[in-house]
Amino acid sequence: MLDFSQILYVFEPLNLLLMTVGVFGGLIVGAMPGLTSTMAVALLVPITFGMTVEMGLVLLMAVYIGAISGGLVSAALLNIPGTPSSVATTFDAFPMAKRGEAGKALAYGVFASFLGSLLSFFALALLAPILGAFALRFGPFEYFALVVFTLSCIISISGKSQVKGLLSACVGLLMAMVGLSNTDGVTRFTFGFSALQSGFAEMPVLIGMYAISQVLMDIADIKKPFKIISASFTVREFCQTAARFRHSVKNVIRSSLIGIGIGILPGVGPGLSNIVAYSTAKSSDKDPDSFGQGNPDGIIASETANNAATGGAMIPLLTLGIPGDVTTMMMLGAFMIHGVQPGPLLMRDHGNLVLIILSAYFISNILMLLLQVYFIRVLIKSLLIPRFILYPVILGLCVIGCYALNSSMTDVWIFLGTGLLGYVFTRLGFPLLPLVLGLLLGRMAETQLRVSIVMGNGSLAGYLDRPIALAFLAAAALSVGFSLYSKRKARLRREGLAAALASENAQG
Amino acid sequence: MRVKTGDFVMALVLLAVTAALYHQSTTINTAMIYALGPVFFPRIIMAVTGLLSVVLIVQSVSFKPAAAGKRAKQAFDREGFIYRWGLTALLVAYLLALPLLGYAAATIPFLFAGMALLGPRKYKDLAIYATVSLGITFGLQFIFATLLKLFLP
Question: Residue B139 sits in which domain range?
Fold first, then answer.
């Protein structure tokens, strides 16, 4: 039975303070080009280790919402998306800012972010219990099929090469096999290092992969100066802009649904939602040519969708234990270090924790709106923090955070090693997401596959009697098949264009 | 013939790692374990990894001549190289120093050296780096050790 009085937990002064600091910190990190919501959560997970699980998740939730929304600032004022989730925001926010309406561009983005998050909250509150109850029917067959589906989704959308995506997932799965086997308690693949007996700890790998590789990738541009367009808006101006949203109700609802839908897909999240919502808004507008030249509906579509995807991404995490995007993957790690396993049993055994997370999500959205309206100038100032100061501090914080998790230098070396591996992978075009997801879900996949085969009397025939598992496997095959087909079609189109160009040149 | 060196080398590395893991899997005693032992799933993944690595090797080799525009190599970014690997070297030195010197004595020089490597190096800048290094180091110590009661090296 849920104890609804738990909602009051988030209103305790310390938690309100944590959420305010979390949202504001997230907004600043999100605003800085190159620093993503993933990094914001990664930097904070070790700090939450010293808190109660409720307090830690409240803080992470606040940071997640702040960081996704903060990407708007640099997208509008620098033409650089602060996070991948605000790529499409640059298309119209920057042209609008350039023609002297920077404050208006920010105001549109801020209110759209709030509406997207709000609608996403209702989706999360409504869908999570339903999906959670449905997921209680899942057994080993369904879980293994779900992992296959999750990996196939990510491989389908990540990078240009599916071979590299698959290889990346395999590396993650192989890393998950290191250490004691869950089922038999046999030590595997440690190469004699006793420190690897318990396998690769997830958080140092996640932090290394996303913090070190990001810093090393961006470091070459460290001295490139930013040209910041000055901007500001008063509360009255903000309210006037918000009133303009009555003309965009359709756009807001459509973009929110796109965001929530894409967010629910395992591993996809806000990074894709803003682009899909933007394209849909453009194609369904009476004047599509005005998009890209400072059309407010472009900003509204992108910012509504990316914030709506945050709630969507939380749904598979809370109900199935499968992260909706990279940032929720960090949160999965945070759940794990606190000894809580997200999934169908979370709703049943830790219903109050889910209530607290939902409440924190709601309050963080309101805080996000208020902080952006009243402190937008401070956020813009944060773009001026030099990256040559920021990068060493980030690395130092990561090192200390990784050490603090288990008081172990082994974790810190794993952080460094996997960070360098992440950098090499990124340089060579191997997507990182399949790797880290393979690492997080590898042991579950192995255990569920082995149990399902034993239950099927030594064969895979048991899957034929499981419609849900079969549906997941079919969806996995379809997603990979469709992705292969689209890539082949795009390649043939490119080759056709090149051949036509060559024959034109020959004739000319 | 053109070879995408990065992909080719990575595929070879992955093949070597897979071979090493397979060798390790043969040393695991599974005699006492019934049905689908601890090497069953890893070997499936190894087989897939090996197969995909071979595919990547094949894909990384091309017999088509390079397009004229693609022949020119990118200029070597010396500054980027120094920043990237200089900071990595500093990080390695920091990790080696941490257990020997302790948190504060290792962190302050790392932060200062990292900022001095990446940023301008006038006296005023160096003074700012020193202040930030001290502030961040002791700030983190207060958060982790005092507030959250977590151990620091």
Answer: 78-147
B-chain CB neighbours of A407 within 8 Å are: 150-151
Residue A360: partners with Cβ closer than 8 Å, 6 or more residues away:
A10, A15, A19, A57, A58, A61, A62
Candidates A135, A140, A136, A141; CA nearest to A467 is A141
Give the E-state strand segments of B23-109 in sequence order. Answer: 61-62
Residues B10 and B38 in one domain: yes
What's the pLDDT tens digit per position in A12-62? Answer: 999 999 999 999 999 988 888 767 788 888 888 888 878 888 899 899 999
pLDDT single digits (tens) A123-160: 998 988 888 888 888 889 998 998 888 888 777 766 67
Same domain, B83 and B61: no
Average pLDDT, chain A: 86
- Identify the domain boundary among B22, B40, B70: B70
Q: Is residue B143 part of a domain?
A: yes
B59 and B85 assigned to the same domain: no
Please indicate, yes or no, whether residues B94 and B51 belong to a single structural domain of this protein: no
Which of B39, B80, B99 faces A219 most closely, judged by CB atoms? Answer: B80
Q: Residue A377, Cα to own-chain centre: how many angstroms?
A: 27
What is the reported pLDDT for A136? 82
Tokens of A398: 């990561």
Q: Return the C-alpha torsion angle A476, A480, A486, A488, nearest 10.
A: -160
Tell me how crowded residue A89 is: count the other CB atoms within 10 A of its CB: 33
* Chain-chain contact of A450 with B10 (C-beta, under 8 angstroms): no
B122: in domain:
yes
Does the beta-carbon distance from B59 to A188 stay under 8 Å? no
The contacts of residue A171 (CB under 8 Å, 6+ apart) are: A435, A438, B14, B49
Give pLDDT, residue A20: 95
In chain B, how many domains are there? 2
Chain B nearest C-alpha distance from A407 (Å): 6
* Phi, psi dihedral angles at A180 (to 5 degrees): -65, 130
- Return the half-sphere exposure (C-beta side, CA atoms, 13 A cut-off) of residue A439: 25
Q: Averaged over B28-55, what is the pLDDT?
A: 86
